[in-house]
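name: query_chain
kind: protein
chains: 1
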Amino acid sequence: MSKPITINPKLDFALERFIDAPRHLVWEALTKPEHLKEWYMPKPWGRISNCEMDVRPGGIFRIDIAVGEGQEFPNLGCFLEVIPMERLIWTSMLFPGYRPAVFDDIPITAIVTMETVGAGTRYVFTALHRDEADFEKNKATGWQQGTEIAVDQFVAHVKSMK
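structure:
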């Protein structure tokens, strides 16, 4: 098992939820494009127009977001670590195949962990930022609020899969 990540509140953002659903449904909602499209983007803000996932280290993680009258914003990243139903790590700092990314957005590395608690699942999402300035910029854009809404949508979607 990988070493736990030490959270630095000046650089990192973490959300924890208990989901009243078995871990295999949480994993499925997290790793299947047809499910991710249902919860990833806060519904009042837009939608996912395209999602491609090759859930393996080095695999593609692409989410295109459509807002307003259809203006699209592509988001491309790479999976770094995949431990089914336990841990998933991806980053926007690398393109698929670990190719260095070129982007005009604020990069993050996202870590999701899950563990069984009773009949449910403890889910933790953590976003690592390069520095305090990136984290502050991300918060100012509404990214943190959007992530909180998306995680709430994620929990509701997983429960609907039961």
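note: The first helix runs from residue 23 to 31.
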